[in-house]
Amino acid sequence: MEAATLNSPQFTTLHGPLRSRRSLLKLHSNSISFNSPAKFSVRASATGGGDSAVTLLDYGAGNVQSIRNAIRYLGLDIKDVQTPEDILNAKRLIFPGVGAFAAMMDVLNRNGMAEALHTYIEKDRPFLGICLGLQLLFESSEENGPVKGLGVIPGVVGRFDSSNGCRVPHIGWNSLKVNKDSVILDDVANSHVYFVHSYRAVPSEENEEWISSTCNYGIDFISSIRRGNVHAVQFHPEKSGDVGLSILRKFLLPNSSITKKPLEGKATKLAKRVIACLDVRTNDNGDLVVTKGDQYDVREQTKDNEVRNLGKPVELAGQYYIDGADEVSFLNITGFRDFPLGDLPMLQILRYTSENVFVPLTVGGGIRDFTDANGRYYSSLEVASEYFRSGADKISIGSDAVYAAEEYLKTGIKTGKSSLEQISRVYGNQAVVVSIDPRRQYLTSPYEVGFKSVKVSNLGPNGEEYAWYQCTVNGGREGRPIGAYELAKAVEELGAGEILLNCIDCDGQGQGFDIDLIKLISDAVSIPVIASSGAGKAEHFSEVFSETNASAALAAGIFHRKEVPIQSVKDHLLKKGIEVRI
Ligand code: 1PR
Main site of residence (predicted)? Predict the structure, then answer.
């Protein structure tokens, strides 16, 4: 096992395979104060690994931090593949394919890894491919192609079709139909697991003998394959909570004496997600705290006007994972003025959170090109890469996406140079969220402005019947000449994979989501939309899912103030017949 490098001696006990998620997180939060940057030190990135080591093929194109964390959580060392021989000599090989298919095959072919992988798999050596690590086994992929794969399994990997009403990318917790003795999926039948992808392989007579489970998203697609010791999954076990850890444990520790209760669930389809959001910023003492605004004002209405402090970021994120959050989002809300790579504690918060939280983590704030005081230039891609390396699964872009959309709408030209375009090209659009911060502007007539407006459900202060939603930048400080509708459509074209739709008017008010706004945007785009701002009770979640096409709902204040537990929200949704992950 890798020695942890945190200063705190208690921390070294946290990664044993025998601890439950609950006890582990309890220990974690009791032992370290996450407000104090001085208590952090950076963990070594790769381990040497002895005989018990798991060999990991990381070809350098994306975020594989999550799978590293999951392997270490299960108590195993990691040996990184350096040469094709490392593949051939592996005792147990994991290939977490990330990025784009063509780029991946190019790297694997150039450095001889593709051939070694083919040989390893043909010899029936223990293999687990994840996501692209499943797709590469097929004959070819249509992603930027056709591009040839390893050709071990008959079939072509194609794109999901959004014309049948399914949002692409397929993001979220969907159910598995396990249809043969799959070994690693034996204990998790009918559970939700986390998918994030736009391309998929479909079952056919030719590949039928390989298929161990399927999933439905508009069509039946292959969610896992197994033949002998060769396994591959389209979903992300390292992001699928206890169910995912159980799958990894079965592959990595097949002879483990730990008997775990089967985690069988009642999943039937893509679940609606409940997301906990942590707005993070430095308070007046220099500590990074979770804060929460009222209509984006995060300062207390007291004489000292101090920043509202609702807790420690890593502890709260860990708690929300235990409580059943389907995702956790961190928004570095002063990122627009502070350079995030100078903000090491934010990166450390991500690192420590991702060691123990096995659901997707999104981070936003300050993702843009930046030149520091010494004249050193950092591209937005570098900023995003640092976030991914620190454990983020998705990054969220706010202000910079507004500027990119304005430019695109003005010229009609995709320059490929905006942060949004660059990051989605390298990491895939499923890894890029655009966070919109609109403010409602009432109108007496829908023709008063050149932006898309709605007939509002509640009249404006002067009896206005219409409103448009003006986008803002810099944490709501500056209104821009673009509406939320126009922005959403533009960023979808520029490569956003998901939209986080806030509403400044509703933020922190507890009066419910802005249904008019969420309906407008979720009907306008074919990528998933996360409804945000205004949740005050469980009924607000069922309302937003019943009345709009939102794929997920996010809340902050009610969870931080412990007014409504995440589980109560989910129980309520289940009672209303809305499928959620349990
Ligand atoms: O512009 O790329 O640097 O990103 C900045 C990010 O920080 C954006 O995503 C922006 O939404 C966020 N942000 C900036 N200032 C604030 C602020 O509050 N002063 N927070 C802020 C936005 C809104 C939600 C909130 C929901 C739910 N926070 O994330 O969590 O409204 O709250 P509720 O359930 O309590 O109503 P860039």
Answer: plastid
DSSP state letters, 212-242: EEEEEESEEEEEEEEETTEEEESS-GGGSHH
Q: Which residues are annotated as a binding site for L-glutamine?
A: 131
Helix (H) or strand (E) run with residue 327 in it? strand 327-332
Identify the sign of the CA torsion 41, 47, 49, 54. Answer: positive
Mean pLDDT of 420-444: 94
pTM: 0.90
Contact 157, 245 (CB under 8 A): no
Residue 437 Cβ < 6 Å to ligand 1: yes
Distance of CA 571 to the CA centre of its chain: 23
Active-site annotation holder among 2, 58, 143, 279? 279
CATH of 41-252, one of 3.40.50.80, 3.30.70.1120, 3.40.50.720, 3.40.50.880: 3.40.50.880
**Does the domain at residues 273-575 carry the CATH identifier 3.20.20.140?**
no
Q: What's the token pair of residue 326?
A: 């389907």
Atom of ligand 1 nearest to the CA of 502: 31
CB 340 near ligand 1, within 6 Å = no
How far away, in angstroms, is 362 Cα from ligand 1 center?
13
Mutate to test the pocket of ligand 1, among 307, 338, 400, 507 (most ligand atoms within 8 A of CB): 507
Asked if 327 is an active-site residue, the reply is no
Half-sphere exposure of 515 (CA within 13 A, CB side): 15
To the query of whether residue 238 is one of the catalytic residues in this protein, the response is yes
Question: How is the chain split into domains, by residue range?
Answer: 41-252, 273-575
Tens of pLDDT, residue by residue over 95-154, are 997 777 888 898 899 999 999 999 999 999 999 999 999 999 999 999 887 999 999 999
Question: Under a CB-based contact definition with an 8 Å cutoff, are residues 59 and 104 in contact?
Answer: yes
Outline where DSSP puts E strands in 398-528. 432-436, 438-443, 453-455, 466-473, 478-483, 498-501
